[in-house]
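Review box. Two proteins, two foldings.
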Amino acid sequence: MAKVMPKTGLRWRVAIVDDHVPSRADVRAAVAAAGGEVAGEATRAADALAMVSSVRPDVVIFAVGLPDGDGVATAAAVTSGNDCPVVLFTSHTRDELVARAQSAGVMAYLLKPLRPAELAPALDLAVARFAETRQLRQTLEERKVIERAKGRLMDKLNLTEEEAFRRLRRAAMNSRRPMVEIARALLVSESVTEDLPRI
């Protein structure tokens, strides 16, 4: 059963997915001692995604073994949606588990039994890595949009790559908007005019 708790502005808001009562109590105490709060808890894989979606934590701590499924697979569903970073909480360090955790997008590990002093560095690292990864992904997506818009300008106006780039940059400066917004607007207007029926 998932339990949802109210929001406040502390160091981080943490969600815990673990069916082991003493482990959850240890994590809860360590989070509070480090200046964070537990925003939600779930004891089953089936409840984890809904809980994470509703409480929107800064980081989720997932146990590997859950009574109704695999914590790593459920963690992968959280990371694939780019909801928030995941820290794996386990007593195992087998190579196979580490490889699966990496593939699932897990950002850090905590070993059972929990040593409270290890919690804050692991959560801080996970949150920082997640933000960095998200920023890199966004930058890459923005570059792709700008490249597509530049290509359209080159084709339509018979411009060189440098001339197309300069036009986008000038439009961005004149409108005081980011170049990616100008590029998106260009691509949208192009697609709209292409979709209009010919008269």
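Next protein.
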Amino acid sequence: MIRKNIGVWGESHKGYKRKSNEDRFLIKEMPGIIILAVADGVGGNPHGGQAAAIVIDSFREYEFIGENLKKELSMALALAERRIHHEVNKNPNLHGMGATATAVVLNNSNAFWIHVGDSRIYLLRDKKLKQITTDHTFIQDFLNEGSLTPEQAKNHPLKNMLEQCVGCDEMQPDCGEIRIKNDDRLLLCSDGLTTHLSDLQIECMLNTKSTQEAGEELIRTALKSGGEDNVTVIVKDLSYY
């Protein structure tokens, strides 16, 4: 659990159905820069927690200097990919090891982000919630074309099948930039949260609580709704930027 004086709060919970927690997260403050990241070990694959730890360690250890943060994020993610492949090459028993990666670097009035998998970034602005990232899942195309509704997708047997991850054969991360406004709020989370909570529920909790209170309520509600997966949440207020 993380509580800091930079308007951010984060926590990860194992949930009630998993034997271990394969989620990892990062909150790191550097001069002029704050790095936030969530990684979720790919379910059903060996050593997902190890892969998620490699992702987070790579973002923690990469030397961000702030000259080109979009490129630096890509380089940090590429470092994680190389490290995972290196571990697999050393030990073939690790074949299939992978993790999601969703990260944000905050600098002045900009938030640069990069994303692979089905962890998510949300932006709360003017009390309205917007999903910034798009899930790299098998059923996302059906959602895009309207042949599946979000409610149908929640119960689809292939809802957790990823098309991309860090460590998968092909990785084409999405990336982007958000021009920050005062009183914006960011949420980074693993799919253990969004499996159980609708965007409307998330919006309501983020609107009425402090970062810590919102984060605690989001996790508590996901657990009360079944807690089927590990759940990780980072809530960051952006009034400082």
